[in-house]
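If you are new to this repository, start here. Below is one unmodified record pulled from the training split, so you can see the exact layout before writing a loader.
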Amino acid sequence: MKPTAAIQKPLELTDDLLKLRAWRMPDMVAYQHTPDEWWLTPLDDHLPLLRLNRFGLELLTSMDGKTTVAALQQKYGKWVCGPDGQTGRWHLERWSLPGYSLCYFGTEPPAGDRHEAKWDLLLQQIREGWSGQEGFEGEEHLSEFHLHEITKRDGHFDQIETTVSHLFREPSEALQGLTYGRILAKHLRRLGWWTPKPRSIVEVGGGLGYLARELAGELSPSERLGVRYIFLDMTRPFLESQFALAREVGWHASGAQANAERLPLRDASIDLVIDNENLADMTPVKLTRQEVQSDKGDTALHQEAVEWIRRLRLPLGADMPEEFIFNLGPILFMAELWRVLKPGGRAILIEFGIETGWPAPVKLPGHTEYEVQ
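And here is the target side for that same chain:
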């Protein structure tokens, strides 16, 4: 179950709002329960199912980006639009709220600023409704979330932190009958990373352990023989699942609750590190242009970020904004990898990110991640 969205009052249908046009959410499914009744599901699981009659369905389909809220209110506002007795006005006051997210009111359809991806703005509003927060939530926010706010593993990667590897944890026709983990194992073998095979593997933030399970499924018993598989994760419930699945398929598994930015490993002790879809969960720092240009951070953490920028000679460019997010956590993690990998050791890091521009927030239920540049 998703966390309950932040409670919001119904919209007031003011003169300014009535002038806006209405777009229904694309790819929305309306289930026809009876010949004269349709069901819609609000985004927030804690809100009741919406049941519509033909008037209600017509109200929804009329939200085509051309019709104004005023026109919809005039045509459907006073009519009962479902068997539960709500009027068209009742629906217009709620459907665009993040908890429902069935439509959008505006002068132009929502669009992203980077790839012109439709509905980015609405999605951001929805996600801010999930988290109940706007703007930067603090440098300790992500570590606190993973340490203290995740208390169970069931459903987490289905609804809270959806990942590609979890989506393809089982054989998929889209992957020619393979899983994400098996494809990764084939790729590492093709790169020659199993010739010779690593004697020690560290997986950072291994989710529920499916990646380790599928790696084992692709590798032969001789390829796994004598290999230590070490899990490091901040979230204790995930570690329990990782150990169980890894031992089930024959890995010699161990691990610890730990932060990837401060690895509890000896120098030059590891052959291979796998970090899959975790970098955006690491510490973000909100820096100012003044801090970077003066080489003086406002806090100890900011000073550390400024020093890394100088040490690595990162080209931030002349278009540096007054404030921006700097991915300090991934930098610290990379420094730790340099320390713990043996000479000739290898690491594979996989994450969503951007090649140009500045990291933007990605609002998810209960927390905010940041694009990695």
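Two things worth knowing about this chain: Residues 1-6, 112-118 have pLDDT under 50 and may be disordered. The longest helix spans residues 236-248.
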